[in-house]
Amino acid sequence: MNKKQYLEKRQALLAAAQELLNAGKIDEAKEKRQEIVNLDEQWDEIAKEQANIAALEGTHPPMEMANVSVQNAGNNVVENTRVENNISYEGVFAKVALGRELTAEEIAVYNQHNKENTYKHSTTNTKILIPETVVAGIQEMMKELHPIIGEVQETTINGIVKYKKHKSIKAGDAKYYAEDEATKAEENEWGEFTLTGHELAKYVTVKWKLSQMAIEDFIPFIKREISQRMAAAKARAIVKGTGVNQPTGIVTALEQNATDQIVNSPSLKYEDFTKARAKIGTDFASGVKIYCNTTTLWEGIANIMDKNGRPIFLPSPVDGHPGKVLGMTVHEEDSLADGEIIIGNVRDGYKMNRQEPMKLTQGEEGRQREHWYGGYEVNDGNVYAEEAFALIKAAKLDGLAG
Q1: E strand intervals along 72-197
Q2: Kind and range of the H or E element at 392?
Q3: This prediction's pTM
Q4: Strands (DSSP E) along 8-125, which ranges?
Q5: Each residue of 282-296: pLDDT tens digit?
């Protein structure tokens, strides 16, 4: 199977799954979705093996163009031609990560980007700054895997960051006054939270043979592998992080500081969504979205009817998400437990700061004949405004009519 065949087959499966979903055949649609997952895994294995084979084929040595005369079919003779290589840090990064030797020019490029870890012939167990282009690719993949990551407004401040939280106006709020009545001074109640730094690291282990892959194949490989591993951990922290050696998650913050933003329900139903939506402040209304895991969506939300017997979930997978409920976009987030649903504005209600840019750590394990690569980043996050969120906690998912 080549890439074209893979894409054609995947597109056909997606179309079939959508037809089943439109027909209300949820179980058959889930089976078709699993076929797509299996196909993706099969293609990943094929792609990796193609990289292995390409690595064994070897490469031709580059032609040295310094001080070479080039005869052009009897026309002008070009003397002392020298080709200046346009060395990119991305290529240098890949060579170092794969343990290849660098030229003097490449060493200079490496040292320019890694001032704290200058080049040595053995770069094992050192942190290498990942190129911005690769980081951008990893982050885009992370957002695709876990959309909640893409909603977080992340700053990149090197150091501790403190945020003021406006709790309430205790006195002096805006009102109408009589002509001779003195205006009262406003008295605000403020809180504060601090973002420090917690290490997020995920490691990829490969056999030595795979580490011999071609330079141009390494960048797509490392993007895919690190993004898959780091995305799950980062999303889990945003959702349920404890705040101890990791960011504080949305669920944790509401359970600890704003229990009135939680709707507890014995059985998931229509009214749970209207109650939860009513708890979100008007200032955050424009960016409200729904997050739940796959089971909650397809065994719970998709089966709920309103008082007129109409489903509250409207499928719209062509827009890049499963569908909508009461006009709010639904995103699948498997960090949530069955029956847990976050409704809220993550973009305006959650803050995250990245203290250190993403880096790559690497090393070898001789006995296992393995090479490992680790994505590494220092960040912290917390809920900025509890009123931007509501949490539904349903004991059952039987989707009773509202």
Answers
A1: 77-81, 127-129, 153-155, 161-171, 187-195
A2: strand 389-394
A3: 0.65
A4: 68-71, 77-81
A5: 889 999 999 999 999
